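Workshop exercise sheet. Pairs work together: one partner reads the sequence aloud, the other fills in the structure field after running the prediction. Swap roles for the next sheet.
Pair: D.N. / O.F.
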Amino acid sequence: MARKAYARRYAQAVFELALEKKELERWQSDLSQIVLAISDGSVLATLESPKIKIEDKSRLLSGSLKGISPLAINLSLMLIMKSGISLMREIADEYQRLLDAYRGIQTAEVTTAIPLDERDKTKLAGKLSTLVSTKIVLKPEVDPDILGGVIARVGGKLLDGSTRSKLASLKRELGGGG
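Structure field:
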């Protein structure tokens, strides 16, 4: 829980800075590049190692992150010094959520029994968008255990139209009526 709170605070600070400087897309790109760079296990291990000097870590980071803003590099170095570089993925995800909210977009985590094709994704996003009165971006997931149908999480709402939940409901009705 504390990790999430820290990530939220950093993302909020970065978002406010990006908004003030009118660099929303730049920061989105920079955060994505940093996450990609540290997704290499050896790079992350080097950056987290207390045996390696901060100057060497800075050179490694600057070398693998060509073209990103100095402020994004500084954020990374600050996280390295506070032993928090592993938070970068959560910070980038939270930044994306803040950016989407600023643009009036909500993410819907959608679980289906089988993968959706593009036509189905577009259709589902349209229906969910109408339901919650905002633009929706799908974050699809496949779980064969739901048997069929769709489970969607939008904001704080859970919409469970899965076959598994319908069968469980029917079982409760039949069990309670007899």
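Discussion prompt: Residues 32 and 92 are 7 Å apart (CA to CA). What would you look at next?
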